[in-house]
Amino acid sequence: MKLSPDAKLCLEELYLLHAVATDQLKRASGVLNRIVSTFNGLCDTSFEADTLLRYMINRRKNKDWPCLGERARRFEPAVHLLTASQLKTLEAIYVELDITSDEYLFGQAFAKDLVKEFGKRTGSIMPAATLVAVIFGKRKRGEWVCIREEIAKENKSAAGAFSDIEEADRIFKQKRKNA
Question: In whole angstroms, what is the distance from residue 47 CA to residue 163 CA?
Answer without folding.
Answer: 24
